[in-house]
């Protein structure tokens, strides 16, 4: 594999294990969700997020995704409940998407691929640092939200409008006063399982909270996401699309539902 991982044939998901062996581990993400096999677990609690818009700091194009970064130096923007045993701090959110509207999500639901998938990454401050949390099976909690094509989502436009400032790889710009809970669907029902980051090093440290109800965005909004470049300003332009990892083996893991 080339030195840097990516999503192309020479450095894509099939090659990641060459530099990151855990990518072939027993708890990898994403996975296919087969709803007929998923049991309701009545012990699963509702989850809640209390985010401080003042903790939102910057937006960044790293050539692989677009990421919004939050101040996580103290308990400002927190996720609680659901399958979690304590509060988790919001660190960043980012998305995965396809080259067209008919695919792009990482998890699939009964064979359905959504246009994109939003990941809100939180870490457990009982482990003191984000780096330590990455080494723990319950160190990280990711809320995953599917994006489905339909009505435009006004709140998502606040984020999309900022993309013009980070068109190319390596660009970073201030992005402030944004509360990502404005993107949450009305229904809080979720599936949960233990898995990994879907990008190298693919650490197996994630409690996944995947929301059943997708968020609806317009086809024009998806097109705006695809207007980013994975290339730097001084390089020939390469569109940033297809930054999703395909489903990985479930290997006996159990997915649970918060709802009947
Ligand atoms: Zn992700």
Protein model, in words:
With 260 residues, this protein is mainly β. 9% of the residues lie in helices and 28% in strands. It contains four helices and 15 strands. Strands 2, 3, 4, 5, 6, 7, 9, 10, 11, 12, 13, 14 and 15 form a 13-stranded mixed β-sheet that branches. Strands 1-8 form a two-stranded parallel sheet. Strand 4 and strand 5 form a beta hairpin. It is globular, with a radius of gyration of 17 Å. The protein starts with 15 loop residues before the first helix and ends with a strand. The model has no long low-confidence stretch (mean pLDDT 97). Bound molecules: zinc ion. Zinc ion binds next to strand 7.
Question: Which helices and strands, and how do they pair?
Answer:
Elements: H1 16-19, E1 32-33, E2 39-40, E3 47-50, E4 56-61, E5 66-70, E6 78-81, E7 88-97, E8 108-109, E9 116-123, H2 130-133, E10 140-149, H3 154-161, E11 172-174, E12 190-195, E13 206-211, E14 215-217, H4 219-225, E15 256-257
Parallel strand pairs: 1-8, 2-15, 10-13, 10-14
Antiparallel strand pairs: 3-6, 4-5, 4-11, 5-7, 6-7, 7-9, 9-10, 12-13, 12-15
The structure holds zinc ion.
